[in-house]
Design brief:
The protein is of the alpha/beta class. The chain has a single domain, classed as Nucleotidyltransferase, domain 5 (2-Layer Sandwich). It contains eight helices and five strands, in the order ααββαβααββααα. Strands 3-2-1-4-5 form a five-stranded mixed beta sheet. The longest helix is centred in the last third of the chain and has 24 residues.
Length: 215
C-alpha cells in the first residue's frame, strides 16, 4: 500500500484496518503504550486485535477520554477483542536501557502475548519493532486507528491500576492520584522521602535525590 493510501485511511478510524483486511491480512494488531513520561512506575504496552464488526463508539486516544470512560471502554474492548496482549518494562529496565528501548521491549512483549498471533502490526509512533511480522508505524496513531486507540486505552487503564496498587505499597508519594507523573506534589514527596523502589533513578527530578555514592 502506498503512503498516499495510508494517509487517506486516517480519515476513518477503521480504514487502515479495512485496507489491510482487503489485502488478505488477518488479525491486525494495534500497539500503543502508556507511561513514557512519568518519574515512577513501569511503561506499559498493549497490543489489541479487533474484529471487523467491533462496536466501540467514542473510542479514541486514551488521553482524550475521562478515567470513567476509559474504564467503560476497557471492558468493552476486552469483550470484543480477538486477542489482547500486555507487556511491561519496569523502572529498573528503563534505567538500564533508556525509556525508548524499554518501551520497544514492552511493545514486543505485548505482541508475543497475543493468542492467536497477529498477521500485521499497526504501531503508534515512528519506531518499528524487530521481528518478521509485517508492520506499519503511524504518527498519532492512537487518534487515527481504532486498533491503536483500543491498545491506548488498555495500556492506560492497566498502568493506572498498577499505580493505585503501588500507592498502597509505597504510601506518601501519591501514586494513586498522579500515577507517577512529575507534578509539584510528587516532586515535593520525592524531595522529602527520597526515591522509592519504583522511581526511575536516571530521570531528572529523581536522580538528584539519590544517596551519594562514596569512594
Amino acid at each position: 500500500m502506498t503512503l498516499e493510501l495510508f494517509a487517506a485511511a486516517s480519515e476513518h478510524p477503521l480504514l487502515f484496518e479495512n485496507s489491510l483486511w482487503a489485502r488478505g491480512y488477518e488479525r491486525i494488531a494495534g500497539i500503543d503504550e502508556a507511561g513514557r513520561g512519568p518519574l515512577a512506575g513501569p511503561v506499559v504496552a498493549a497490543a489489541v486485535v479487533l474484529p471487523p464488526d467491533s462496536d466501540l463508539p467514542g473510542l479514541t486516544d486514551s488521553k482524550k477520554l475521562s478515567p470513567k470512560r476509559r474504564e467503560e471502554l476497557y471492558g468493552r474492548i476486552r469483550q470484543q477483542a480477538v486477542a489482547v496482549g500486555i507487556g511491561l518494562a519496569p523502572a529498573e529496565e528503563i534505567d538500564a536501557i533508556n525509556i525508548l528501548q524499554a518501551t520497544l521491549q514492552a511493545m514486543a512483549r505485548a505482541v508475543v502475548r497475543l493468542h492467536p498471533p497477529p498477521g500485521y502490526l499497526l504501531i503508534d509512533g515512528i519506531t518499528p519493532l524487530p521481528g518478521s511480522v509485517p508492520q506499519r508505524t503511524l504518527k498519532k496513531g492512537d487518534s487515527r486507528s481504532l486498533s491503536i486507540s483500543a491498545a491506548s486505552v488498555i495500556a492506560k487503564v492497566v498502568r493506572d491500576r498498577l499505580m493505585v496498587h503501588y500507592d498502597r505499597c509505597f504510601p506518601g508519594y501519591g501514586f494513586a492520584d498522579h500515577k507517577g507523573y512529575g507534578c509539584t506534589a510528587h516532586r515535593r514527596a520525592i524531595a522529602e522521602l527520597g526515591p522509592s523502589p519504583i522511581h526511575r533513578k536516571t530521570f531528572r527530578g529523581v536522580r538528584e535525590y539519590l544517596p551519594a555514592v562514596s569512594g
